[in-house]
TrEMBL record:
PANTHER family listed in its UniProt record: ASPARTOACYLASE, SUCCINYLGLUTAMATE DESUCCINYLASE
The name this protein goes by in its record: Succinylglutamate desuccinylase/aspartoacylase family protein
Cofactor entry: Zn(2+)
GO cellular component entries: cytosol
């Protein structure tokens, strides 16, 4: 784990990259900040987490780090120990953690609850949606540390790296660490309700777009040509044919739209 700092004093904000070793976009954003060394109004901690997995360009060495929190110093896995070390390092910080996916090119935010912090900061980020995943929080970083996660785009793409840079700067501006103003936008909020499982098969297909409502009766995915039909309407989130081993993604409900006027006062 690599830990660096911009500014002096005890940081209360942290930028976290490389929780997953096959998602290099956030690391690029952190390296760029370290190269540019912008002058900051508040100290910022910068962390590149899973260096062993990043070197090998694999998601994890022993187990998924974002299912391993809070971790344990006596854990037998690399990620079990790393989770504990990261939590110690982030104690007292609001963390901004960057990820990328195989399912959706447009950046969106993931939070563990629609808290005051989330309502204030996320509409100032260049994201198209906020997803509340408290039903599926177990083992994730934000179950242990106050965290805003962002999905920056498609894994390994140049666009995801550019998005990671823009998202980080918007976050740091929103928390008054960098000077300047952010743009607030209306933001739809979704809550994950279910996992969409997939059966063992040779080929997988997904017929729907993330964040676009699926009507009851519509086929939304298939395993070896066997179609899955929506029983009730839902919004697909993190859906992709081959992104995860045993799930297509998640179903969600739309719970709110945060409007700029409502959060401005
Ligand atoms: Zn990730």
């Amino acid at each position: 784990m690599r830990v660096a700092q911009l500014g002096t004093g005890e940081p209360e904000i942290a930028v976290v990259a490389g929780i997953h070793g096959d998602e290099p976009c956030g690391v690029r954003a952190v390296e760029r900040l370290l190269d540019d060394r912008p002058s900051v109004n508040r100290p910022i901690k910068l962390i590149v987490v899973n260096e062993a997995a990043l070197e090998r360009r694999i998601r994890f060495v022993d187990e998924d780090l974002n299912r391993a929190f809070p971790g344990d110093p006596a854990a037998t896995t690399h990620e079990g120990k790393l989770a504990h070390d990261l939590v110690s390092e982030l104690e007292g910080c609001l963390a901004f953690s960057m990820h990328s996916t195989q399912s959706h090119a447009e950046p969106f935010a993931i939070v563990n609850g629609v808290t005051e912090t989330a309502r204030d900061i996320v509409p100032q980020l260049p994201v198209t949606a906020m997803v509340e995943t408290s039903n599926f929080a177990e083992g994730r970083l934000f179950s242990a540390i106050d965290t805003i996660e962002v999905e920056c785009g498609l894994q390994g793409s140049e666009t995801a790296a550019e998005n990671a840079d823009r998202l980080t700067r918007a976050f740091l501006t929103a928390v008054d660490a960098l000077p300047g103003d952010t743009v607030r936008r209306d933001l739809p909020v979704y809550r994950l309700t279910d996992v969409i499982r997939k059966d063992q098969a040779d080929t997988y297909e997904v017929f729907v777009d993330n964040f676009t409502e699926v009507e009851p009766g519509a086929p939304f995915a298939a395993a070896d040509g066997e179609k899955q039909i929506a029983e009730e309407s839902f919004y697909p989130v993190l859906m992709s044919s081959n992104g995860y081993q045993d799930v297509f993604g998640y179903s969600a409900e739309k719970i709110d739209v945060l409007e700029t006027q409502a959060v401005a006062d």
